[in-house]
Amino acid sequence: MEKHAPLILTLESTCDETAAALIDGQLNVLGSCIASQDSLHRPFRGVVPEIAARAHVERLLPVLETTLKQAGFWLEDLDAIAVATTPGLANSLLVGLVAAKTLAIVLDRPLIGINHLHAHVFACQFVENEGSGAANGVLNRGIYPCVGMIVSGGHSHLYHYRSPLDSRLLGGTIDDAAGEAFDKVAAMLNLGFPGGPAVSLAAEKGDPKAFRFPRSYWNEPEIRFSFSGLKTAVRYAIAGPGSVDFSSLNLSAETVANVAASFEQAVVDVLVHKAIQATGQTGESTLCLGGGVAANRRLRSQLAQACSENGIRLIIAPLELCTDNAVMGAIALEHFRAGLFSDLEIDIQPGLVR
Ligand code: KG4
Ligand code: ZN
Fold first, then answer.
1. What is the DSSP letter of 310?
2. Is the CB of residue 153 below 6 angstroms from any atom belonging to ligand 1?
3. pLDDT tens digit string along 72-123?
4. Gap from CA of 193 to ligand 2 centroid (Å)
5. Is 0.85 surpassed by the pTM of this model?
6. Measuring from atom 8 of ligand 1, which residue has the nearest CA?
7. Could you tell me if residue 72 is left (phi over 0), alpha (psi between -120 and 50 degrees) or otherwise beta?
């Protein structure tokens, strides 16, 4: 296969997806493979860090092999090895970093440590085929400067980007991420895991005004979210305080749908409100949205409407690049071009790096 240098291998193991991709210098995706761990975590209704890390160990090499085979390249063809080193689950991050360091040493190629959140926003450069959710090889040019909103299982944050690698944190959640709230509410309503798609599906038949759930920091100038109070409000609405066995609640299908819809609307309202506030504060006219919760239909359509009313250009990552993947690790190309390589002493940083 023809390649446009440099050829970069990207690895992703920040949470519970093991992924690899092969990207060339024109952002062509030559190979990509994701091994989902959903079935391993489903019985626990949330990601279990120890299980996630062990599964990464088992899956990383087969995922790497599949990616290279798809692309028709060998390890020796690589020009650099990139890996997400922050933020994420410590042991999950470690598996990816150890693999990437080993490849860098054995192949004598540069190592590039990337920030997973900035990669989620970078995914907005890929365009999806109409309706298919799949990236089609066409690129959205000129998405920077922009405000980038990352809404995932671990993060709900807004950044001001001057360029892919030059950003300032505007603010984010002080407790749970939006996706975490979706997952916990799904568990309370006895819906599936991951919770986002399950709550969203149940919400389709519900009334978003049936319950009035809180919208934190609504009138505050700060870019700030809190979703833990919303979680508690949902819990009180369906079960009241005290210890509860949610599996024995016997809620009617109508109540489940109404709670799901009202919860989803509360999350969407605050995300849309703060995203518009952030663009106003920064003076930017482009808003990029990435992360697993960006797959949410209500969020996508209501954000699109708010952006069009406010004269903001909205770019949302293709559906298949909203949840964790290694293609968005193509941001490593920016590091490569800027000569920003990591030394072999680089460590993981599980917490948020500003
Ligand atoms: O970006 P991601 O794959 O992993 C992290 O970096 O955290 O995001 C996963 C999160 C999960 O909490 C999942 O429930 C949520 O994204 N999610 C959704 C939807 N699809 C995935 N939340 C709401 N609506 C969806 N359609
Ligand atoms: Zn993510």
1. T
2. yes
3. 999 999 999 999 999 999 999 999 999 999 999 999 999 999 999 999 999 9
4. 16
5. yes
6. 292
7. left
